[in-house]
Amino acid sequence: MKQLSSGQIRQMYLDFFQEKGHTIEPSASLIPVDDPTLLWINSGVATMKKYFDGSVVPKNPRMTSSQKSIRTNDIENVGKTPRHHTLFEMLGNFSVGDYFKKEAITWAYELLTSPKWFGWDPDKLYMTVYPKDKDAKMYWEKVGVAPDHIIEIEDNFWDIGQGPSGPDSEIFYDRGKDFDNLAPDDPENYPGGENDRWLEVWNIVFSQFNHTPQDTYEPLPRKNIDTGMGLERVVSIFQHARTNFETDLFLPMIRKTEELSDNKKYDTNKKDNEAFRIIADHARAITVAIGDGALPSNVGRGYVIRRLIRRAIVNGQRLGINEAFLYKLVPVVGQTLESYYPDVLKQKDYIAKVVRSEEDRFNETLTDGLKLFNQVVKDAKANHQTTIDGPTAFKLYDTYGFPVELTEEEANDAGLSVDKPGFEVEMQKQKDRARKARSGAKSMGVQRDLLIEIKDPSEYVGYDTLDVDHAELLEIVENEKLVDHSKGGSVEVIFDRTPFYAEMGGQVADRGVVLDEEGDKVADVVDVQHAPNGQNLHTLKTQEPLEKGKTYHLIVDKLFHSRVEKNHTATHLLDQSLRNVLGGHTQQAGSLVEPNYLRFDFNHFGQVTDEDLQKVEDMVNRQIFNEIDVNTVVTDPKTGKKMGAIALFSEKYGDKVRVVSIGDFSVEFCGGTHVNNTRDIGLFKIVSESGVGAGVRRIEAVTAKDAFKLLNDHEKELKQIAGDLKVTQIKDTPKRVDQLLGEIKDLTQKQQSLEAKLAGQQAQNVFADKKTAGKYSIITGIIKDAGMDQLRQLADTWRSKHLSDVLVLGTGSGDKANLIVAVADEQIKAGIKAGDLIKSIAGNIKGGGGGRPNMAQAGGKDPAGLDKAMSAAVDWLANK
């Protein structure tokens, strides 16, 4: 067999299909764009949905790609099995309404067996087919596959719900008897079964049905091909590796981990092997994901990143690595992927910084987790329990990053077991919550065949003019039918020429009117989108019937258009200013350009300081005041990149692109409309900055008239404040505010001192009234005109003087009530816990609370219930 690196194998696959007329599509970002059904890009076809459901017609119906993907639904298996990964690459070839089974099967066999390409032994290949798919079986036999190497399996039908579906054919490679892990008569010992010998390397899906909303399967107007070949698996075959981890995709990280470990070696024992594999896998995933803009957090994608980092750290400790180390693997990952993903290595310093910060953060959390675990063990033994319950094990896993296996090991060392079924119940609840959060949209739409068939050429001329006369009406879509005459109401139309911009890249569509040749208005343009074949599809609210073939006068709302242009050019200035101030790692994560404001989302690790925000705003305004010309050049993507143009992960660029340059300050690929000179923007003002997701920040801003109005409003507010403060000049307002804050601080301190004295005087009477409750002593009392600070101080005094076993104090004012409970250390050992008592009595003040075994507090909204709370505390203690 050929000796090939992973980079050579990837490129060979792409080159093969390029020779077959396919366009090589670049790997998209792991972060899905406009797809709420996915947390991550999880397959090659995930980036092709718009082509398969017909919302967009590709320039070339034949495409191929190597798509980086993430799946974490079975993360617990990573490291334990030879082939489970979180990050993986899916090689694929796709046909959208072009070739079908014959070509897909013929080419697959050629790639796998031809000496020019993979050159695998045909006798080692086995194919599975859907029993009813006689064509697939026939084509496999025609290319030379022996009948006994073709297995019919009922499950070979690809269906993810509504949208394209169909039978599939899986290809398996026989790794030989050395890989036999089952008895000869085991029902899973066959190509397609759960075994180690026959390795699935490729799946070819023949999308030939529409799974309709009515749950029927109708023939697709255009049949599609969707295939997926796992790069990691194929590399393991070429490199004679028993698992995917002994390949050039993972071994560099494993060797680096060996260097960092406590003299551990990858080939020592199975337990250590698992730790090495988990670290290598997770290092790859977090490095690439952070490079694509994901950041650690407690929700969504950020939670996945945080979980992977923590899982890797815990496994590092298993190898004797007790300091931050994962960030050191980032450049190693970058080197393994450099041939196809050079941006990963270019961002290594930024990615390592993020990982290191998260490692340091988790090491603190891990210490807290160990404290909780030790307390759990202590409590279990004190209560003569032999098991750590499922919810507690899940809390250790979910909050502190303890894999359940680690909890089990530590528990076993302490003579305890873990309620694993209970843990799984909690785990399933979390998965259900995550699934529910993403279930609001369809995974892939049913093909809308009508628009796909519209192929009339239509020219957008809005870059040069906003007024077009004699535009011919080419198509009218009314009630999902092509008609020659509209009846009125809402219709979709295509003209041969149009000045109306179709919504794209965050810039909203133009608005305007349609006039007939006599100059009378016949319709309002309320929206413009791109049809599947690229034409501008206008949504009209008609006042008069329209007729196909007639010519009309199209006029864009110039004021609306101009205000949008100002905001769009401002987003380019903002984008570059953020890079200059915060660092080159910032990437655009979305934008919205409306006529009255702009919204710009960007990836950034940490909050943006007020100082940096001011620097950004000042930098944008400098470009505006410098009156820089805005120039646009139409060229090819390669030339555009040489010009320094910034490209977005979320955008796919054709043979021709528009490069928008604002002097030497900003150069970007952009198909939107812009002002001629930055002075046209007038003024730029940031309205707000906030976090909107894991590592994603959002700036909202205004320009021109809206910015002037914002400043005017701020001035009015300042004048009002100055008047209220009796300040004659606005500039003196900050000084007056400082004076008032100082006075307030003095008064607050005096008030707290008086409250403490009053509380102390009342406490003397309260502390003298000690009651007996069963075998315990308790002091209860209601302190007037006090706050929680005073109650805590009294509790400290009580504890220092050892006045009773338990203390319960309360205070109330208006509709607010507070309780505090303190328990002596000796009684905690006897099972009396402040948290249990506070929960028992807090309902009396219509509130709730909690705390530590020795001190707990509660808040409520019914001071009238304080007396009942005191009585309830005595009763609770008496029954212990």
TrEMBL record:
Reaction catalysis annotation: tRNA(Ala) + L-alanine + ATP = L-alanyl-tRNA(Ala) + AMP + diphosphate
Alanyl-transfer RNA synthetases family profile domain span: 4-713
BP terms from Gene Ontology: alanyl-tRNA aminoacylation
Key words of the record: Aminoacyl-tRNA synthetase, ATP-binding, Coiled coil, Cytoplasm, Ligase, Metal-binding, Nucleotide-binding, Protein biosynthesis, RNA-binding, tRNA-binding, Zinc
Coiled-coil regions listed: 711-764
Cofactor note: Binds 1 zinc ion per subunit.
SMART domains: tRNA_SAD (SM00863)
Signal peptide start and end residues: none
Cofactors demanded by this protein: Zn(2+)
GO cellular component terms given for this protein: cytosol
Database matches in Pfam families: DHHA1, tRNA-synt_2c, tRNA_SAD
GO molecular function, one term: transferase activity
Keyword Cytoplasm: yes
Location(s) in or outside the cell: Cytoplasm
Main location: cytoplasm
Record-stated family: Belongs to the class-II aminoacyl-tRNA synthetase family.
General function of this protein: Catalyzes the attachment of alanine to tRNA(Ala) in a two-step reaction: alanine is first activated by ATP to form Ala-AMP and then transferred to the acceptor end of tRNA(Ala). Also edits incorrectly charged Ser-tRNA(Ala) and Gly-tRNA(Ala) via its editing domain.
Name this polypeptide is given: Alanine--tRNA ligase
Gene giving rise to this polypeptide: alaS
